[in-house]
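Please check this chain.
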Amino acid sequence: MTEQEIARAKTHIDAMSRYEMASLWRFAPPGHPYFDRTLPLAEYFEERFNKLGRFSPEISKALG
């Protein structure tokens, strides 16, 4: 990924709700760039998701 693509992805991550992040965490296809540990996006996503409180019982139940 280019620096510009990483910057756009970080902006997208910043705009995601807790529910959207939980949904992506649970249902992302294998190899999704937000969870690729060779990219800085994985750590960025995880830090923001942690700040938002990660999964709650309500979110987990709503996602199924």
